[in-house]
Specification:
It contains seven helices and six strands. The protein is of the alpha/beta class. Strands 1, 2, 3, 4, 5 and 6 form a six-stranded mixed β-sheet that branches.
């Protein structure tokens, strides 16, 4: 019986393992098929696929697109996408512009609440231009502002809290369209 993991994240978004390390971990866990579905990026797919060569692990190119539908945030996983598809590249580029601004804005809001260096700390954990709420939560825990990730979200990053910045994500139809234009299958995360 094959073992699948069709929703995983690497350091290309908010995961804790590089794409190569994620592949090695999946192999150790006996996974046969791994989809790398980082938030709004496909930049880790090539590394993951290269790392899987000769291991018996099949890496599926994927993405998790943040989308808005009916005033709600949805995460749409795209499986079997072509990371080089122009519509997907263009759509995800817009998502990344917003992610960068949002990370900076979260940092500004936390700074106003007396948490100095939150953006810089979260950015160091991210290792790339897009700093997510997860990176902020990790930083807040590391600095003793919260005892765990859940508390960091509850105290600082959820709606109504000082570091909350509402998302301005792609419409659901756009997100699904980008995935389909890239030859992928769209599913709700």
């Amino acid at each position: 019986m094959l073992k699948y993991d069709l929703h995983s994240h690497s350091t290309a978004s908010d995961g804790t393992l590089s794409p190569s390390a994620l592949v090695a971990h999946a192999c150790r866990q006996g996974v046969d098929v791994l989809a790398l579905t980082d938030h709004d990026v496909t930049s880790g797919v090539a590394e993951a696929q290269a790392a899987a060569v000769g291991t018996g692990l099949r890496v599926v190119a994927g993405v998790e697109v943040s989308a808005t539908w009916n005033h709600q945030l949805l995460h749409i996983v795209g499986l079997g996408v072509d990371p080089a598809a122009p519509a997907l590249i263009a759509g995800l580029a817009g998502q990344q512009v917003f992610r960068v601004w949002r990370g900076e804005e979260i940092g500004r809001r936390l700074e106003k609440r007396g948490i100095a260096g939150a953006y810089e700390g979260a950015a160091a954990l991210a290792g790339g231009p897009a700093v997510s709420r997860t990176h902020f939560a990790r930083h807040l825990v590391a600095q003793g502002h919260a005892r765990d990730m859940g508390k960091a979200f509850d105290m600082y990053l959820k709606r109504g809290k000082p570091g909350y910045v509402p998302g301005q994500w792609a419409g659901l139809e756009d997100a699904v369209g980008w995935i389909r234009a890239a030859g992928g299958q769209a599913v709700v995360a």
